[in-house]
């Protein structure tokens, strides 16, 4: 019972991804175009654009910078909106002169867009920094680990039914067939990659 809310959350947000892929993707706010395109800014020019963005929106925590050619330099991150992807808040600047092309404002999203932007933060637990990442990781590893005693209990029942002709471990392993090796490899891979996911997810 203690984990039902988490399972429901992961299931609901997980269902949203195929919905987005098929036909339920929310419209992305349109970006205006610059008069002329210039090469992607680097070095001091990029520093000036970042400083310009912070001057215009001091509360914007820039996490990503995209260069979209005709749409300029797009500074994306987190601002006043909560539970949104980084792309929901930001602004696009003209690389040539720092002119504001487009403002992206999370609180102004419609209901469909807001639901779409909530999927990643809720599914991956990235909405409150490292604290929620750790909580999500602990829930994930505990719920995943609970499958192991489940297999052991079931194998013990089969062992008893076979009058101890085979051990529970032998029954459990052989019962999975070739999937036993594939599943073991995937579990090990997930555990190895988990620290990188915790520290690298935004």
Spell out the key features of this protein.
4 strands, alpha+beta, 2 domains, single chain, 202 residues, four-stranded antiparallel β-sheet, 7 helices
List the helices and strands and how they pair.
Blueprint (H helix, E strand, L loop, with lengths): L3 H21 L18 H14 L4 E7 L5 E6 L10 E5 L6 E5 L6 H14 L5 H16 L1 H15 L6 H9 L2 H22 L2
Antiparallel strand pairs: 1-2, 2-3, 3-4
Helix pairs in contact: 1-3, 5-6
Helix content: 40-55%
Q: Which strand-content bin applies to the residues?
A: 5-15%
> Strand order, biggest sheet?
1-2-3-4
Structural class: alpha+beta
Number of helices: 7
Q: What is Rg?
A: 24 Å
Question: How does the overall form come out from the CA principal axes?
Answer: elongated
Descriptive overview:
With 202 residues, the chain is an alpha+beta fold. The chain has two domains: 4-124, no CATH class; 146-200, no CATH class. The protein is built from seven helices and four strands; from the N terminus they run ααββββααααα. The chain has helices at 4-24, 43-56, 111-124, 130-145, 147-161, 168-176, 179-200, and strands spanning 61-67, 73-78, 89-93, 100-104. A four-stranded antiparallel sheet has the order 1-2-3-4, covered by helices on one side. Helix 1 (4-24) packs across helix 3 (111-124). The longest helix has 22 residues, at 179-200. It starts with a helix and ends with a helix. 18% of the residues are buried. The model has no long low-confidence stretch (mean pLDDT 85).
Please sum up the structure shown.
The protein has 202 residues and is of the alpha+beta class. The protein contains seven helices and four strands. It is elongated and about 80 Å long.
